[in-house]
Amino acid sequence: MKVESNLNSGRTEPLLRVTGLSQQFVQRRTLSRSKFTVNAFSDVDLALFAGRTLALVGESGAGKSSLARCVALLDQPTAGKIELEGRDLLALGRKALIPIHGQIQMIFQDPTSAMNPSRSAGEIIAEPLVVQGEGTKAQRRERALHLMEQVGLDPRSEGKRPFEFSGGQRQRLAIARGLALGPRVLIFDEVLSNLDALNQSLILRLLADLQRSHSLAYLHVSHDLRLVSEFADDVALMCEGRIVEQQDARKLFESPKHSYTRDLLATVQSVDSILLERSA
Amino acid sequence: MRDCWARPVGDCLETLLAVKNLNVAYRSADGSTQVAVENASCEIGAGEVLGLMGESGCGKTSIALALLGLLGAEQAQVSGSIQFRGKELLTMGEREMREIRGSGISMVFQEPGIALNPVMRVREQVAEVIHAHKQMSWEKCQEEAQSALVRVGLPDTPRIFSAYPHQLSGGQRQRVTLAQALACEPALVIADEPTAAVDARSQQELLRLLQQLQREMGIAILMISHSAEVQARLADRLMVMERGRIVEQGRFEELYRRPSHPCTRAMLRAPMAADDAEELDFATVT
Asked: Alpha-carbon distance B94 to B113, whole Å?
């Protein structure tokens, strides 16, 4: 099923466009030679715009993370196209892709497992710069300190190891590293779900500020519809590997078209409605 | 702090657990100590649900571990008093404490993937808990385990009973840990973020189930969760912690409508006003 995309009307060209993207995994049954394929996701179309956030929503197992990893060029899709300003990225060779990685960065759910525990905060942030061979050691350090300030971390803690930071601070550290190469597209995979309510809103505020000042395009994977309603401009709903609805966020929450969307929205209840239900 | 609300709702409730001036300080390798809980006092009545909220690192889990006597003397200094059904837990011997763990007070952890043994069938894992507390044959324990698994809404099939944890979904795994926690019909269950690792739909199902079992079995729950929606569904009273101290406690609805501490406001009403966040920023970013 194709979903008509009403995201492009009257707007500029997308920064990143994904068309007909699919990914299959070939697996073998235990103790047998017979193979079978599992579709992680199929025929996905997405468009990311500078300065806007597209939320990718769905239940666990819907294929959100597999899709996000492919868009971040960390995994190979089986079919489809990923274009950055009209340039087909999947047609590029490995060498040509290296600088592109600096343009599209991904930030993961669990910052602890995404960082080398024996490195200091400053080294962790500067790591992408080392990989891309940018600047001298002094320049990289200066950039790392500047980034720490940008994400609301005290630059004086550059020598601390990841475990010395709180969960929220660690996620800020991961964001600083994601920004190191000056990307234009950031992909977030459930970056808020390990945080408490207070840190969630602080991080959301930080992300909104960064998006405004750098005019970044965000793809934000989340299963929390209540949070999505706070930060998303557009929402793509994923169910069993397919995008079933893609809409302007306000329209989606006010008048969901697909029955699956309505189902999912029904699971979101405000504190007020829960209390009302309890007192009844 | 409103002291009048430190007590269970309604006078008819019998006090099940009374915590007075609890202090927990962790020892580190260099001999210094790190205070995790400072002078915490609270009571839980029989069959009551007490919610516990606070930002990460504020000491919620330390309280839970102290209640279960899981903080060893070499690891942490625990002082104050914890009375369960009138008995002091902090001075209790390990043998007696083991009797209480599982059958008096039990716990549901956040990550069922970590809490369960990956190389043991789920029925055996539940049977183990029963076997530790009841004088019954292993076969009988397995039968009881099966009915415990059915009670938490898992399908009544051998496929589930003899499955290993990795063969079950996240929601099903969390039901298995719930079955373990409820198998010996404890008076108090400590639930530490029981629904944080599952998606919205399973979360709703699990909460409904927990609420239903809580009512049927008359168990008290200490519900640790930073989600206001989870607390709204279950908690009778709420306790809010900030940096090791209990800053506010009261009836859930009361605190939700009229929070007096900025931390409570932030916890119950994210998104918050920008100046509120400013005020709290120092707590997280220093």
From this structure: 27
